[in-house]
Amino acid sequence: MGARPLGAGLAGAALASLLALPAAPAVAEAAPTCEALQIRTSGATSVLHRVRLPDFTDVRVGELPYRMNALGYARSQGWAYGIAEGFADGGHVVALRPSDPPLDLGPVVAGRGDTPWNPIGHPEAGAIRGDRWYVLEDDRLYTVDVDRDSRTFRRVLRSIALERRHGPFSVDDVDVGPDGLLYGVAQTYTGIPAVVRLDPGTGVVEPVSWLPDLLPDSYGSVVIGRDGALYVTGNRSGGAYRIGEGGKVVKLAELPGTSSSDAAGCLRRPPSPAPPEPPPVPPPPTSSEEPPPPPTPSAETPPPSTTPPSTTRPSPARPTPSQASPPPEAPPPSETPETASPTPSEEPDSDETGHTTQEKRRWALAGLVLLIGGSAAVRRLGRG
């Protein structure tokens, strides 16, 4: 049997428009995966589970040292918050994460003068939007600050009385919809469960869609999945259900019965691994022989000296003296060393000998004149 509408103002289509619930897929596993934390309580303590939706497979994380309820998940922090019972000073705020032990952060603190000290002791439902934690106990909805950097962390910021419309009913858990309102499944005065909507600004609670396919029970562990569907657990009956568009109910799993249960999600997804870096581009092959260096411009060789070499005048042919009268012996001329004009390559450097080339040439010319003059004198004596 399908969902029964509540009238023109509360038609079952309102659930789909507010929660953007798509039609239930033929195979539930095809919906986007959502992981949630669930607390199941049967005795003096609660047990923490990690649940994967939409197939509702779960992993037992461990037993907690106290009873807990009003679980909410702060997605920006990656932590879930719940209220632990059994303390002399009232309910304590406990932070939960699957990879860490529970952290007892102390009691809820009254934030206003007209609010009793730690008014929350035995809550029934809870959900977090941003850094605001909505906690439902009896006929009041409390707003608690869970911003860890705030001076009012763990304080009650607001308290409002619930206004139940269309008859009395109990709400055992809620989750925040995309419109900022709270949604859950409640047992109504007619004995038929219904999806209910709670406005945290006004405290008004009203049914949205009747669910005659569900057993009369208290329903906790409410989570709105990534597919927009509402997931709930029957506490005493133990069934886990998906509620889709138009109130269509699909049973997902059979669980052991509990006295109460609560859930919060979807948990923040771990970051995707970075894509592998491309392999480095190998450098171009290099030759083992180094290229020859560019030619160095050579210094210009100075041109050779343009000074013409000294020339020796040829001496005239010496006549054969007459044998009849031998000439008297003339005193031998003073010996003058013959100095040959050096070639440019043999010319000593003026810095090393102390004489310049012009001086040497003058000395050679003087010696030549003396030699010619001596020869002429000898010839004149021979003629005389």
Automatic annotation (TrEMBL):
Task: From the UniProt annotation, give the residues forming the signal peptide.
Answer: 1-28
Ranges for region Disordered: 257-361
- Keyword Signal included in the entry's annotation: yes
Biased amino acid composition, Basic and acidic residues: 352-361
Question: What are the record keywords, sorted?
Answer: Signal
Q: Which residues form the DUF6923 domain?
A: 64-266
Note whether Signal occurs among the keywords: yes
Which residue stretches does the UniProt record annotate as biased composition, category Pro residues?
Answer: 270-307, 316-335
Q: What is this protein called?
A: DUF6923 domain-containing protein
What is the scientific name of the source organism? Saccharopolyspora flava
Q: What is the taxonomic lineage of the source species?
A: Bacteria, Bacillati, Actinomycetota, Actinomycetes, Pseudonocardiales
